[in-house]
């Protein structure tokens, strides 16, 4: 029987108007599909606020962390009161809100007294936003007459114990999804789950990294044998570049799994870097759509694309770090082992390596899933570790689609710090952050016509 998994991002759970639109979409698709699963993100900005609250507690900024917590509570109270009339549903949600925030206050007290903040404690705090929103959406769906049920994500998304960026244990996820969700689906019930959150086999809360709700949706789709996955967001689809940097960026109609994976790895913030992997083997299509523009088909992601390899579909940039050392030989294997041991949680392996007898330059990508402070933190750690190296932030630019030699299309005023072919023979370049806007705008012209280069 046809099964659809839908995920709604934080921009669509930010206010009552958007949430009512979410419920309309769920209702419409429940009529079109025999079985439906819904994954929701926290209110826009809530996860970052929760992280900041516990960080302020660690810094013993008592007034600051309490003010942030009070603001978060006020935002959720306003949302609940605008969606639910006085009665049992509203009372239940307000009690749940206060219970979750009381637990957060207790956690902050522990952190205040110890001065230490563990990754496990960060996860416990940051999971609150998704938990609250899943309860709100499930209750709202029930209020509107939909056969919906809240399902706790921690009961299904079982992970390892790598807090803040946990890896799902796929066999256990598949087993739990079949045991818990299929009976509900067989009864015509719509399960509604929080994204982003998992749990270890011992029941400790974990999180899947920034954008982890995407991964929750695709894991469930693969586990349940879904026919499609739809990611609902506030834009019409996946763009050919970041519109904030390239004003004439356009929606890409189709992408392959490989292309969307590269886009996610090299900086596109619309999808978790690991979210495509569960879809590849079962060949489950993914579509990115805007609930406020249903006339637009959005972007379809599938195993192949009719114009694959003939056109640059997108240009994208991701944060990175450039490391260089002169006048000394380098044992690359030993050096990389040292870096992985000390900074592996913040950086991927190098995407560009240039080495001669007494000179070396490397460029590392800092994935968007590590958060906005990851570049500064990785740089700080490397500066302490590698005192004789030049270390500076860069932007790593990649072209998705046709394989082109990017530097041929750039103004000579843009200084290339490094250039190389990636593992799949795509050209990558590293530029200074101040040059990224101009570089992307110049390279984006390649998306306007068919182009291929042998």
From TrEMBL:
SUPFAM superfamilies xrefs = Carbamate kinase-like (SSF53633)
Identify which top EC class this enzyme belongs to: transferase
What are the UniProt keywords, alphabetically? Answer: Amino-acid biosynthesis, ATP-binding, Diaminopimelate biosynthesis, Kinase, Nucleotide-binding, Transferase
Keyword Kinase set for record: yes
Which superkingdom does the taxonomy of this entry point to? Bacteria
Instruction: Report the catalytic activity.
Output: L-aspartate + ATP = 4-phospho-L-aspartate + ADP
Q: In which pathway does it act?
A: Amino-acid biosynthesis; L-threonine biosynthesis; L-threonine from L-aspartate: step 1/5; Amino-acid biosynthesis; L-methionine biosynthesis via de novo pathway; L-homoserine from L-aspartate: step 1/3; Amino-acid biosynthesis; L-lysine biosynthesis via DAP pathway; (S)-tetrahydrodipicolinate from L-aspartate: step 1/4
An example of a Gene Ontology BP annotation on this entry? Answer: diaminopimelate biosynthetic process
Q: Which Pfam families does this entry report, sorted A to Z?
A: AA_kinase
Q: Which GO terms describe its cellular component?
A: cytosol
**Which Gene3D superfamilies does the entry link to?**
Acetylglutamate kinase-like
| Alphabetized GO MF terms | aspartate kinase activity; ATP binding
EC code(s) of this entry: 2.7.2.4
Give the Aspartate/glutamate/uridylate kinase domain ranges: 3-290
According to its UniProt record, which protein family does this protein belong to? Belongs to the aspartokinase family.
The protein here is known as: Aspartokinase
Record the organism. Answer: Candidatus Thermofonsia Clade 1 bacterium
């Amino acid at each position: 029987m046809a099964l659809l998994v839908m995920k709604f991002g934080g921009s669509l759970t930010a206010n009552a108007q958007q949430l009512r639109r979410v419920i309309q979409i769920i209702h419409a698709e429940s009529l079109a599909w025999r079985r439906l699963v819904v994954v929701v993100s926290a209110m826009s900005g809530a996860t970052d606020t929760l992280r900041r609250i516990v960080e302020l507690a660690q810094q013993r900024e008592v007034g600051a962390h309490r003010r942030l917590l009070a603001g978060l509570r006020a935002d959720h109270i306003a949302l609940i009161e605008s969606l639910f009339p006085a009665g049992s549903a509203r009372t239940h949600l307000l009690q749940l809100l206060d219970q979750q925030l009381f637990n957060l206050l207790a956690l902050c007290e522990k952190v205040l007294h110890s001065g230490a903040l563990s990754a496990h404690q960060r996860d416990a705090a940051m999971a609150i936003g998704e938990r609250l929103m899943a309860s709100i959406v499930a209750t709202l769906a029930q209020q509107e007459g939909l056969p919906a049920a809240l399902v706790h994500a921690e009961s299904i998304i079982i992970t390892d114990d790598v807090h803040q960026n946990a890896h799902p244990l796929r066999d256990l996820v598949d087993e739990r999804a079949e045991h818990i969700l299929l009976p509900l689906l067989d009864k015509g019930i719509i399960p509604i789950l929080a994204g982003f959150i998992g749990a270890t086999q011992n029941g400790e809360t974990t999180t899947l990294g920034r954008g982890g709700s995407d991964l929750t949706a695709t894991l469930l789709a693969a586990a349940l044998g879904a026919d499609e996955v739809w990611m609902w967001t506030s834009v019409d689809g996946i763009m050919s570049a970041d519109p904030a940097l390239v004003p004439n960026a356009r929606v890409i109609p189709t992408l392959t799994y490989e292309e969307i994976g590269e886009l996610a790895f090299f900086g596109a913030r619309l999808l978790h870097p690991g979210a495509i992997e569960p879809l590849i083997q079962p060949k489950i299509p993914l579509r990115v759509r805007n609930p406020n523009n249903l006339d637009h088909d959005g972007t379809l992601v599938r195993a192949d694309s009719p114009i694959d390899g003939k056109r640059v579909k997108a240009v994208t940039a991701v944060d990175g770090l450039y490391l260089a050392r002169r006048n000394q030989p380098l044992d690359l294997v030993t050096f990389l082992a040292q870096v992985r041991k000390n900074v592996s949680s913040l950086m991927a392996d190098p995407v560009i390596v240039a080495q001669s007898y007494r000179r070396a330059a490397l460029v590392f990508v800092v994935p968007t899933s590590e958060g906005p402070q990851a570049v500064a933190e990785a740089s700080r750690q490397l500066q302490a570790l590698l005192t004789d190296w030049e270390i500076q932030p860069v932007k790593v630019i990649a072209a998705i689609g046709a394989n082109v030699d990017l530097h041929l299309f750039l103004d000579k005023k843009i200084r290339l710090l490094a250039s190389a072919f990636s593992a799949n023979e795509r050209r990558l370049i590293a530029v200074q952050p101040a040059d990224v806007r101009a570089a992307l705008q110049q390279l984006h012209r390649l998306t306007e016509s068919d182009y291929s280069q042998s």
